[in-house]
Amino acid sequence: MSSDPNRIGAEQERWHKETVTPALARFPEQKETFTTNSGIPVQRLYTPADVPVDYLRDLGFPGEYPFTRGVQPTMYRGRFWTMRQYAGYGTAEASNRRYRYLLENGQSGLSVAFDLPTQIGYDSDSPYAEGEVGKVGVAIDTLADMETLFEGIPLDKVSTSMTINAPAAVLLAMYIAVAEKQGVKPVQLTGTIQNDILKEYAARGTYIFPPAPSMRLVTDIFAYCAREVPRWNTISISGYHIREAGATAAQEVGFTLANGIAYVEAAIRAGLAVDTFAPQLSFFFNAHNDFFEEVAKFRAARRLWARIMRERFKAQDPRSCMLRFHTQTGGSTLTAQQPMNNIVRVTLQAFAAVCGGTQSLHTNSWDEALALPTEESVRVALRTQQIIAYESGATATIDPLAGSYYVEHLTGEIERQAMAYIAKIDEMGGAVRAIERGYMQREIQEAAYQYQRQVESGERVVVGVNRFQVEEPAPTNLLRVDPAVQEAQRRKLAEVKARRDQAAVGRALAALRAAAAGTDNLMPPILEAVKAYATLQEICDVLRDVFGEYHPTEEL
């Protein structure tokens, strides 16, 4: 991009002396140093001399290696991203109503939020579920709940994302079973299961089993779906929760791709050829408020993953090198103070995701710092995506910020910092070992501390929180989950247990135990147990008995 950096440098030095210095004497800048939200230093001006980019090597063309400019040849000129609002609360009936409402309002894909007991493999009647049933997502105990959740929603016509990790195999099996009851074959299913257990150890905490059997569950899903559910994304390797925990943009990319490397290595060790499973890998990133940094982050992640897959794993299929990703706007950036300001934050973040080339997008609702979103607030969030898609002009051309000296500089800088994190993790023996030693956790905690310190000192302005505060009445009409949901869910679970074939459940769970103790792929016996209406906890308890449970070491 720079044909004569020496001349540009000399001219820039003259410009600074003759033009900038007198201006600074009259109008000093607001502060001595500027940084991105992640702490990357920002210069006053960028020129071609700051961007040593080889266009064909580093950028290329959309739909081609290294995919910096996008994974599809025409991007949004052909089809918009999937508008996929993350939703679920209370019972399967309530969540089903919300899904139908969103689809009627133009949402193009579903994204299922599960409650905390479901996420850690406990039924609604477990003592561990007390007070949590249906609170942060929908409660799913058996296949009967899943049937209700998708009642009237044709699974061959909609793409579904399920945010579930430790018991991902069980929920995927339930989805396949529901589809079969609708007459939809597994080969017709499209969607994603998060299935990213490593980020649970590093940043979120809803793990069940130790790392080794957890990785076996992940790779068993890879192998099963490669044969039986070929259009399904088998994992959504997630930087979202890493960022929500306080990571910088570069850490989000570095730690996420390091986890991706660990999954690829585990699958290869399990005997899978890289090009048989890699095209079904997908990613999940956050979008925060620093617009240009976020756009650069997405571009850097695409380029770096392509290079890792080709150079490190010798992938031959171009689809193996494509980093396809879902984006969610930053939940941690929403404020309870002046909550309507969150609409503006979400718009900025969503626009960055679109300019960065996302394949799927969730926009948070303005009231999510206070409660689960209402129908009205989630409709505004969905309309935000639709306005960007149809009115902003951002979809008319591909990678619209390419060639910006600033964005190209940031793209290169985030790639460089992320590569440094990956090299450090490699030295430790890989992502699993780095997590076990607490490396990622400490790095994230330090970044979170530095950011919070800047906010509390006023160095980092958060409108309505540490500047421009106003007295305001408390919002009304917030969505609250009825505590009666828990008892209703328990009654429904008892009814399912009373009418199912207990002998069939016993046989299915025994077969699962035998498979878990051996080396067979776990998906077929889990699917049979689900079809017999074994509960989520019954299935997870079998695996707990065989695999044990994970407890962080004192080193963390």
Automatic annotation (TrEMBL):
Residues 36-549 form the Methylmalonyl-CoA mutase alpha/beta chain catalytic domain. Coiled coil: none annotated. Keywords: Isomerase. The keyword RNA-binding does not apply. One of its GO terms (molecular function) is methylmalonyl-CoA mutase activity. This is Methylmalonyl-CoA mutase, N-terminal domain. It comes from Symbiobacterium thermophilum (strain DSM 24528 / JCM 14929 / IAM 14863 / T).
